[in-house]
Amino acid sequence: MKYLFMVTSTLLFLMTACSSEESIPDELLSEEEGEFRVIAVSEVEGKKLHKAPSFFHELNDPNVIMRNLEMITLDNAQHDPYKSLGIEEAPYFIFFDQEGIAFETNSEEEAYEFVEKALEKEID
């Protein structure tokens, strides 16, 4: 009986993990191979953000990312098409490739490092 419970629990966990990846709306995915679509979530409530996170301005070529950057508030993250992502804190950064979430973090420093590494790969 204990074994059956463990197997059932494991299968349920795997199904949940797989379904969360499948629930990402296509409109959030990157359209171009080798590029990312970025969602940056801010704590500012009720206002549309017009200024990119500061670290994007420190990059060698911010235009590579900026054309695919969408800035939303934590309040907006609770509505479609972002609701399925389960964003519960800000700041938060999600990088999408053509298949799903490539990287996500609540740290601006980690997001900056991810972008730097992605740009280095593009240059190589």
From TrEMBL:
This is Thioredoxin.
